[in-house]
Amino acid sequence: MKKLRNTCGSSQRSGKRNRVIFLRGAWMLGVLTSSVVFACGCSNKTELVGVAAVAGNDSPEASSVAQKVEDGIEKMLGIDETAAEPVRIQLNQGDASGSNPAGEKESKKGSDGGIRIELATEAATEPEPTTAPEPEIEDITLLFAGDVYFSNYVLSAYDKAGGIHGVLDEGIRAEIDAADIFMVNQEFPFTERGTQAADKQYTFRLPHDRLHMMNEMGIDIVTLANNHILDFGPEGITDSIAALNEAGIKYVGAGEDLEEAKKLEIIEVGGRKIGFIGTSRVYMAASWAAGENHPGVFSTYDPTLPIEEIKKADELVDYLVVYVHWGIERETSPENYQRVMGQQYIDAGADIVIGSHPHVLQPLEFYNEKPIMFSMGNFVFGSSIPSTELLKIEISTGGEMKVTEIPCTSSGGYTKLKSQ
Question: What phi and psi, each to the nearest 5 degrees, are found at residue 244?
């Protein structure tokens, strides 16, 4: 398990809160020019700081006022001068010119001058940066499925049943509900615009009014890095992103430009940061790859850039998932490049590699004790899916990872557990 990153919070730092008393008399002139400083070590731990200023000179009247100030403070605070640590009072009077040797600000209380006393208490506090406590770590469950496309078979099953229970059985819905994060490959765009890709056997899209089915399935995040997101041009990416944002579903793998397509999506759950990156090695033309100024998918035909992004992401998260579109359709065994690339991803910092595109299951393997699922197959798609599955990954508080394959099957647009 990777080390969790700390965040900053605040603690309390002691300070002083002042109470100000002004004594004024018509005989006082000029600005505040003298200071009286009090320091107390009395038993109630009250800290005293006082400042008094008397304008004028060493006249009997000024001295009398100063003495009254001292006597008044002692009486007010109940100070015993015979105590082991009596209050020490020092009076520094200013000169008749109105100079301010103590550096005190001038009084704005009136032209007749005055005596200013500040009594400070120890109760005041102010914030100070410190390290926040570690987040509480909990067991978490990540759940993955393969290709999702609401074909006419799926839409018919949904509409006939009047809800998602016509598409997913109770057992599958229970697994999704129990998971902290559920991720799939969205193998279509949400759009009603654009131009259909030429010379392409299958092109997919769905209208916005079917967006609610994604929420009903319990999907938290999708990858858009595949060979169908641009079936109707860049409008498919633009409209899909808008739809997913509206539905509150996160996405990776495609965007309006390369920066968005390669972005790391982080979901915090159970005291851990789970990162997601989507990328594709299958698309129809070079123009489908996202670039600096145009939309597309995050390409991994050359894995150099995805590996760089994985390395950077590894420093920001506790666990990193890479969902990759690769392989050959209908092949049940991975190509050699899939195995090499999957291991490169893990060497760069990925903890989980999930594959799609073949539309059938390919095996689960482990490399350095980390799972590579080469193909999840179709999950919710066409009329018949003999074998598919959910991949459940449970991560304990201690960082142990338990990987479970949950076999499923589908017919007539209805996907269910194989045991049902």
Answer: -65, -40
Burial-class residue 90 by CB neighbours within 10 Å (0-12, 13-18, 19+).
exposed
3-state secondary structure 106-136: CCCCCCCCCEEEEEEECCCEEEEEEECCCCC
SS3 347: helix
CB count within 10 Å of CB 20 equals 10
Whether 323 and 253 have beta carbons less than 8 Å apart is answered as yes
Residue whose tokens read 């490399």: 367
User: Which residue matches tokens 């079936």?
Assistant: 231
pLDDT digits (tens, 9 = 90+) for 92-125: 444 434 444 444 444 333 444 444 444 444 445 5
Nearest to 241 by CA among 250, 232, 228: 250
Q: What is the pTM of this model?
A: 0.71
| Residue-wise pLDDT tens digits, 191-211 | 999 999 998 999 999 999 999
User: For the residues of 23-41, what is the DSSP string, one character each?
Assistant: E--TT--SS---EEEEE--
Q: Which two tokens stand for residue 220?
A: 């938290």
**Interstrand relation of 370-376 and 352-356 (parallel, antiparallel or unpaired):** parallel
251: phi then psi, degrees, rounded to nearest 5: -145, 155
